[in-house]
Design a protein that fits this description.
The chain is built from seven helices and five strands; from the N terminus they run αααααααβββββ. It has a five-stranded mixed β-barrel with strand order 1-2-3-5-4. The longest helix has 31 residues. The chain starts with a helix and ends with a strand.
Length: 223
């Protein structure tokens, strides 16, 4: 009887740290666990891709005004442009030259530039000599005195008037009409002219330190 009691196997009690659910999951086949893991990973990826705000997802991304505007191109001066061009130059370096060779090259360059300037100026002179559309030059005979038409601006001095002469001429290069004015002092023996009159004056011998003109007639009296 004692031997039979010893041979009876007692059922194993579960340990205190073991969980029955863990044991059930270990016993479940691997084929049932794999689809569940795939579904959970797919749901997590969709949740990451989906935006929090549905309106933001519906609207496309808009560029800010600063990004939309193109960056302005950098404007470089001639000296800075040459310096930058030399810095990115990838060609072969020139031969080494002494100071005398450099000075000779500078002299030759200056001579070439001077010759080019002379040719250009001679061409401009020849072009000016050709008949153009501007006002023809006045034909002055030798010994004939020059006369001007002007407006009296002051008659305060005795026997002297100050006349403003307006000059209009066409620029020889730009063909633009340039208007200038000059002030001359004329001799008025009888004090005929007054401020605002239009008068005609003629060249004369030096009558004083500033007077080189003489009154001929009063064309129009001031109103």
């Amino acid at each position: 009887m004692a031997e039979e009691e010893e041979n009876v196997e007692t059922p194993e009690e579960p340990s205190a740290g073991s969980d029955p659910e863990d044991e059930a999951s270990e016993e479940a086949p691997a084929e049932e666990q794999a689809p569940a893991d795939q579904e959970s990973s797919a749901e997590e990826s969709l949740a990451e891709e989906a935006p929090d705000d549905p309106e933001a997802a519906a609207e496309p991304e808009r560029e800010t005004p600063a990004e939309a505007e193109a960056e302005p191109e950098e404007v470089l001066g001639p000296k800075e442009a040459r310096k930058r061009a030399r810095s990115i130059h990838s060609g072969e370096a020139g031969p080494q030259r002494s100071g005398e060779e450099r000075a000779t090259e500078r002299v030759e360059t200056r001579r070439g530039n001077a010759a080019a300037r002379s040719r250009r100026r001679s061409q401009e002179r020849a072009k000016r000599a050709e008949p153009g559309q501007g006002t023809p030059a006045a034909d002055r005979e030798p010994g004939v005195r020059k006369s001007q038409l002007g407006t009296v601006v002051s008659d305060k001095a005795d026997k002297t008037i100050t006349v403003r002469v307006d000059i209009s001429r066409r620029h020889r290069r730009y063909e633009k009409v340039v208007r200038q004015s000059a002030t001359v002092h004329a001799h008025d023996e009888a004090n005929e002219a007054s401020a605002g009159d239009v008068v005609r004056v003629i060249e004369s011998r030096p009558l004083s330190r500033k007077k080189r003109w003489r009154l001929v007639e009063v064309v129009e009296k001031a109103r």
